Structure formats: structure tokens, C-alpha cells
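Before relying on records like the one below, remember that each one covers exactly one chain. Contacts with other chains, cofactors or solvent are not represented anywhere in the record.
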Amino acid sequence: MTTRTSSVSSHPEFSVSNLDAAKHAVVHDFPGGAVALAPLAGMNPGTLSNKVNPTIDSHHLTLSESVTIQAISQDYRILHAEAAMLGHAAIPLPKPGNCSDVELLNAYARWTKDIGETAAAINEALEGDIDEKALSAIHREMHEDFARALELFARFKQLGG
């Protein structure tokens, strides 16, 4: 049996405080905040506010509640913070759709277009300063590349069975 060690990154960008901040933001950035979101998730607004308040130790958001809140709000910052803490990235999976030869070619064209935009972001960074703005642009473009690649793969999978 293989023993696994913790892979939670020690990088400050991936701290528990960022996860706590993501939980708080998802709830309180929802239109109407906890008052509006809690009933949709089958919770009391005060309880939900307490569960995402990092200064309250007696209440904690469960994994199921976190998933429910993110699904309702369509805000996945908690998921992204958790993935980052564990050294992973969360990429949205494509929604099933039509898969014809034309759709397959369109998916390929969108993917290669995104790769070109990534190359442009890298080129711009290398010609100037590789600062937070440049890194953010490269990250965003690469994230889009991965999503488009998954879309292309899903279309191939539809054709293959």
C-alpha cells in the first residue's frame, strides 16, 4: 500500500485564509447576500452567514452545503480555492451538444484560436514586464485553452461512441 503525504501547497496564494475569503465572498457577493441565498439552499440566513464567517469557530460550511451554494450561485471561487490549495486547477467540463463534422471543426478552430491568444499574452509579457497583470492574462488564456481542449475531446468522444 502506498502512503500519500499532504500536497497542500505552502505558497501564500493557496492559503486557508484564501479559502475562507472565497466562502465569504460567494455568499455575500450573491445578489441579496446570505438573506437571498440561504433560503434557496434550505438554510437560515444567519446560520449561513456564521458558517462563512472566518472569525466564528462554532459553525462550518459542510462540503455538501458548499457544493449547493456554488451550484445555486454559479460562483465557483470556493472550488477554485480548494483546487489551488491541493495543487490542482478546476476547468469547466463542456456541456453536451451536437457533434457533426462541422461542430468538430469549429471546436478545433476555437481551441487553436485560444492557443494563439495565449501565445500573444506570453509575447506581450516577454516584451514588457512579467508582472501580476501579465501573469493574470497568461493564466486566463491558458485556462481557456484547457477548457477548449476538453470541448474538442468531448466532441471526439461523441463521435467515437
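The radius of gyration is 20 Å.
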